[in-house]
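Let's practice the habit of predicting before peeking. Look at the sequence and jot down your guess about where helices and strands might fall. Then scroll down.
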Amino acid sequence: MDSVYFYSKKPDGSLANEGRPLVMVDNGKPFNINDPWQQAGDEQAGDGIYSLTILIDNSAQPGRYIFTFYMRDKAGNLSNSMVDSIEVVP
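Done guessing? Here is the structure:
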């Protein structure tokens, strides 16, 4: 796999992260609040399990957040999407 990323749709229908994908990592680096994009809470480098720790603070919109995941292989082929969601309650 070359990359794994997802888009996050907020309860109001807008995309989080200004519509940019949230890139997951497989680098074995524990979560670090000061460098969350590279030190994202991945347990073991190179195991094929990609991670990204997301923090949700009390200013987040309550409701269902929809995550649409994509994987791209080293030849540049894009996978079918996988969708999951979480519910944020006040």
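How did you do? The mean pLDDT is 94.
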